[in-house]
Design a protein that fits this description.
Layout (H helix, E strand, L loop, with lengths): L2 H8 L4 H15 L15 E6 L10 E2 L13 E9 L2 E8 L5 E2 L24 E6 L9 E7 L6 E11 L9 E10 L5 E10 L10 E5 L5 E4 L8 E2 L15 E6 L8 E9 L2 E7 L7 E7 L6 E5 L4 E3 L7 E8 L13 E4 L6 E4 L24 E5 L7 E2 L2 E4 L2 E3 L4 E4 L4 E4 L3 E3 L4 E4 L4 E4 L3 E3 L3 E4 L4 E4 L3 E5 L4 E8 L7 E4 L2 E10 L4 E4 L4 E4 L4 E4 L4 E3 L2 E7 L3 E5 L39 E4 L10 H6 L2 E2 L14 E5 L3 E7 L6 E6 L9 E5 L6 E2 H6 L10 E6 L5 E7 L2 E2 L3 E2 L4 E5 L7 E5 L24 E8 L4 E8 L13 E2 L8 E4 L5 E6 L7 E8 L4 E11 L6 E6 L4 E4 L5 E6 L3 E2 L2 E6 L9 H6 L1 E8 L1 E5 L9 E6 L5 E7 L6 E4 L6 E9 ...
Parallel strand pairs: 22-23, 23-26, 24-27, 25-28, 26-29, 27-30, 28-31, 29-32, 30-33, 31-34, 32-35, 34-36, 35-37, 36-38, 37-39, 38-40, 38-41, 39-42, 40-43, 59-62
Antiparallel strand pairs: 1-14, 2-7, 3-4, 4-5, 5-6, 6-11, 7-8, 8-9, 9-10, 10-14, 11-12, 12-13, 15-16, 16-19, 17-18, 17-20, 20-21, 43-48, 44-47, 45-46, 45-47, 49-57, 50-56, 51-55, 52-53, 53-54, 58-59, 58-64, 60-62, 61-63, 63-68, 63-69, 64-67, 65-66, 65-69, 70-71, 71-74, 72-73, 72-75, 75-76
Helix pairs in contact: 1-2
């Protein structure tokens, strides 16, 4: 059974059955591969016979690689799976020196005269029909073929007409042809020979080897090349000086399989001994047992001839893995049945009692009845008394029992590791300071203790099977399992709540039992690695900030909308809302909404258009869709809770579409996990396609208003999305549907503290953030940054739109669609003007503040321009600009990045001496200046209401009024800025 399916089935068992099942699960998760039947080369039987040598004619391939001296070939296909020594091979390598290897890595030895079957000179398995230094001569060939049909195919490899010996003083003195035949059905290996012309010599060059070698370092070697050679598995002969006769066959036949024992069982007989029983294999009386401590190793072996076999010298309190196999008389080894596991009992612990005779220090020996400090094999009892123990540093003990009225205190950062169980009766107390850890090696039984726990304190379980049980509920700050050892298991058999973090690692398992419940309180998180699981129903709370909107996603499967019912919040759905011409008047008015961008059908008012995407579900029996977001309208603060199995697999939300209207393409998604989600990982993953990289998170301001915070490319926030958080994303193009996969890789691996988030990478890009605020209420922000690769147009990787809002300040960069974050090309020498869209909920006093100014290049000035007043303010010197809005929306502000310093405003007296007339003007206006400004050329700049330069005028010295050419200027309101030695004079001008 697949491990995950097995986990899901466990919870239906009674408690004792679950524990047995978990033992089986832990065993299954760690099973080694059982070794295959081992039939070593030395166990093959040999026979010499005679037959007819036939040249290979039906050729499959030519081994051209070896048609040169001392060379091995590339791998060639056998054509069928061939079994040798119990292992299966599909390719072979051949050599010009007369050998064939079933290993792809075989190569010729550096010394061609080194042809021993001992020592793995050539990578085995090695077949040596005639291994010696051979020569390619005229007429030589190396060919192979796969003959016949399954399951009776045959591989033939032939060396035809090769010279032997090689590298003779003159030339090879004799010719030899030989073949290897591999038979699919039987595993038989056969060599066939035909000597050619000539007489081998000189004798000093004749040193052939005939035989085979296995991967298990065993071999068979022929004594000579006669019709009746002897065979040896201990001596490798490499002095054969004759050629086998024509038609000489040498055949190697695999041994009869070695039968394995069955019915393996292992039972501890003491803390250090165990008995291994089995059903013997037929006809065999030689067995080998292997066993190892799962935690410490090494692998040990013992032998026996009958069942049972006794194991001695075991470690107390350890888990052992035990296997067995037959060792047959022909040298073959049987397959290994699946291993079994035994747990040796621990040595009995000693018992001590806290006296507090000296002080409150746990680590003072005089405070214990034994006069010594507790050890891992010491069970401790703490009675009520005047001096109660306080743990500092790192301490250890076996089991822990608090008596009624007793108190155990762990100081900040202290750690108490208990190897056994913990019993907490009614009226006992446990106090844990900040950063302290109580590590439990057995069960924890709480029958009514008072737990006073610092937020950063931890209860950890490790090293085996555990349970939380008892008659009272247990509320913890942080609960971890698996940090100390692999494959831990914790059964929740009583009500357990976690305020901050539930963490399972290293293939560990948390099971919610039939008598237990598991609740993650509001603000809590669940972290697990890919091979750890929390199985069973989990209740996850979420606080609605209310009054007003909260955007919510369920971190569990199978929960219904009806489960949202809670004090302070009543879930209401009404399908009439979705079809009403006046949805705001339907009764009852929904408090639960989804979002469907296809409902947007108008382009009249950005906020109203966007709001049309909200729709009510049709029934409270609908289940939450993992990865989708919902809007909940609560009249006040409320805590909702849903129950079901936690989402932990990959969640995909696909087929996300976009229509063509300005507010189309937004989708309300949600964090599907009980852990924080890193949006930067989601946005850049290959599994996220067709979406802009930005994410938009709602921040309520009142019962009816709020703003959307944007994050993209490391700018803005929030980057980390908390459990239960829903958010908007946008499809990039109407022509390409979007898809996003929420995966384990995007989840944070530890608790995410919103008040202390992970350190961000220091910002190195030029960046400016503006904040718009009224005299009261929420503020709004817009951010511009400069990065290579960005453009002045909208870039899905760099920019974030500005989602429409109502009733709050609105600040964005103006464009085809307003932007809350604008990524721009790297700053250069040219001026950059960014028009601003500034709106207020109504007339009043507001301020624009440069809340961040980072990494602007040296010599770059940042100015805020107000086209209505003609004011240009240096934001590096004065970052806050107060102003009054008389209308809700006005296009008057812009940001200017420039390398040119703009002079300060001229004195009011000088400004009064400058006149611009007629005003309104058409075609031409005249600029009258005081006498002191007639003697030098001046520069005037005409600006539109967005602060953009329309015309730059160079005014020559003259005694009279200077003309201002307006012939190509469109009608409208403008500002004329005149740079003088005394400062800048600004005059308003209307062009008709």
């Amino acid at each position: 059974m697949h491990k995950r399916l097995f986990i899901l089935a466990i919870n239906s068992l009674p408690n004792w059955g679950r524990r047995l099942a978990i033992l089986l699960l832990l065993s299954l998760s760690q099973l080694p591969e059982a070794h295959a039947q081992l039939l070593p080369a030395r166990a093959y039987t040999f026979m010499a016979s005679s037959g007819t040598y036939a040249d290979l004619t039906n050729v499959s391939g030519f081994a051209q690689d070896i048609m040169q001296d001392n060379n091995a070939s590339r791998p060639y296909p056998i054509g069928f799976p061939f079994v040798f020594e119990g292992n299966t091979y599909t390719e072979f390598v051949v050599s010009s020196d007369g050998w064939l290897s079933l290993s792809n890595f075989a190569r010729n030895p550096n010394n061609p005269d080194d042809n021993s079957l001992m020592g793995n000179v050539v990578t085995p398995p090695l077949l040596a029909p005639f291994w010696d230094d051979l020569d390619v001569v005229p007429g030589s060939s190396a060919i192979y073929a796969t003959l016949g049909t399954a399951p009776n195919r045959e591989l033939v490899m032939e060396w035809r007409n090769w010279g032997w010996p090689g590298n003779s003083p003159n030339s090879p003195t004799s010719i030899i042809s030989f073949q290897i035949h591999l038979f699919e059905a039987t595993g038989v290996i056969q060599y066939r020979y035909r000597p050619g012309s000539g007489v081998p010599g000189p004798a000093s060059r004749l040193s052939a080897t005939i035989g085979l070698a296995g991967s298990s370092s065993t071999f068979l070697s022929l004594s000579d090349a006669s019709a009746a050679p002897t065979i040896s598995s201990t001596v490798s002969t490499n002095t054969i000086n004759q050629r086998p006769a024509t038609g000489q066959f040498y055949t190697f036949t695999p041994p009869t399989p070695c039968p394995p024992p069955t019915g393996l069982a292992a039972t501890p007989t003491s803390p250090t001994t165990a008995s291994v029983s089995f059903v013997p294999a037929a006809g065999n009386s030689n067995y080998q047992v292997t066993y190892s401590n799962r935690a410490a190793g090494p692998i040990l072996t013992t032998t026996g001839t009958a069942s049972p076999i006794l194991l001695t010298g075991l470690d107390p309190g350890a888990t052992y893995e035990v296997t067995i196999y037959s060792n047959c008389t022909n040298g073959a080894l049987s397959t290994t049945p699946n291993p079994v596991y035994l747990n040796t009992p621990p040595l009995p612990n000693t018992t001590v009692t806290w006296t507090g005779a000296v002080s409150t220090a746990w680590n003072a020996a005089g405070n214990w009845s034994s006069g010594t400090l507790p050890s891992p094999t010491t069970d401790v009892t703490i009675p009520a008394g005047t001096r109660q123990p306080v743990v500092t540093g790192t301490q250890v003990a076996g089991a822990l029992t608090l008596q009624a009225g007793a108190t155990l205190t762990l100081d900040p950062a202290a750690r108490l590791t208990l190897k056994g169980t913990v019993l907490l009766p009614a009226t006992s107390t446990v106090v844990q300071g900040a950063g302290s850890t109580l590590s439990v090696g057995g069960d924890l039984t709480n029958n009514g203790a008072t737990l006073t726990l610092a937020p950063s304190s931890t209860l950890a379980f490790g090293e085996g099977l555990h349970a939380v049980n008892g008659t009272a509920p247990t509320t913890l700050q942080n609960l971890t399992i698996g940090e100390l050892s692999v494959a831990d298991e914790l059964v929740i058999d009583a009500p357990v709540s976690v305020r901050r973090l539930l963490k399972a690692t290293q293939n560990s398992l948390v099971l919610v039992g039939n008598t237990g419940t598991l609740r993650v309180l509001a603000g809590g998180q669940v972290v697990r690695d890919p091979d750890s699981f929390i199985n069973g129903p989990v209740t996850v709370e979420q606080q609605l900030s209310g009054p007003g909107r909260s955007y919510y996603a369920a971190p569990v499967r199978s929960a219904t909308l009806a489960q949202l019912a809670a004090p302070g919040f009543v879930p209401v759905v009404n399908a009439d809302y979705n079809t009403s011409a006046t949805p705001g008047t339907v009764t009852p008015f929904p408090t639960v909404f989804g979002y469907d961008q296809s409902r947007i059908s108008t382009n009249a008012d950005g906020f109203a258009d966007f709001e049309r995407g909200f729709a009510s579900p049709t029934a409270l029996t609908e289940t939450f869709v993992p990865g989708l977001g919902y809007r909940l309208n609560a009249p006040g603060v409320a805590t909702v809770a849903v129950t079901g199995p936690l989402n932990f697999s990959t969640i995909v939300r696909g087929s996300l579409t976009r229509a063509t209207l300005p507010q189309s393409g937004y989708h309300l998604l949600g964090n599907p996990y009980a852990a924080a989600l890193d949006w930067s990982v989601v946005a850049t993953a290959a599994t996220t396609t067709g979406l802009d990289a930005a994410v938009y998170v709602y921040q309520p301001a009142s019962a009816t208003t709020g703003t959307y915070q944007s994050y993209v490319n490391g700018v803005g926030g929030p980057r980390y999305l908390l459990p239960g958080q829903a958010f908007f994303v946008r499809v990039s193009a109407a022509s390409t549907p979007g898809s996003v996969a929420f995966t384990q890789a995007a989840r944070l691996l530890d608790y995410y503290d919103p008040a202390n988030p992970p350190a961000a990478t220091p910002e190195t890009r030029p960046l400016v953030q503006l904040t718009l605020a009224g005299s009261t209420g929420p503020a709004d922000v817009a951010t511009a940054y400069f990065q290579t690769g960005a453009t002045e147009s909208f870039d899905r990787r760099f920019d974030a739109y500005k989602l429409p809002t109502s009733g709050v300040p609105f600040l964005a960069f103006s464009g085809a669609q307003p932007l809350s974050i604008s990524g721009l090309p790297a700053l250069g020498a040219a001026d950059v003007t960014l028009p601003l869209d500034v709106q207020g909920p109504g007339p009043g006093t507001y301020t624009l503040t440069a809340s961040q100014r980072l990494n602007l290049p040296a010599g770059t000035y940042l100015y805020l321009r107000d086209a209505l007043t003609g004011t240009t303010q240096d934001l590096s010197r004065q970052p806050t600009y107060p102003f009054t809005l008389s209308t809700a929306a006005v296009q008057r502000f812009s940001l200017l990045f420039t390398r040119t310093e703009i002079l300060a405003a001229a004195p009011a007296a000088l400004s009064r001496q400058v006149a611009l007339y007629p005003n309104p003007a058409h075609g031409t206006a005249l600029l009258a200046l005081p006498a002191e400004l007639h003697r030098a050329p001046l520069t005037a700049t005409l600006l539109n209401p967005l602060g953009q330069t329309v015309r730059r005028l160079e005014l020559a010295p003259t005694a009279g009024p200077r003309p201002v050419d307006l012939r190509t200027v469109a009608p409208g309101l403008y500002s004329l800025q005149l740079a003088t030695p005394q400062g800048v004079v600004t005059k308003r001008l209307r062009v008709e």
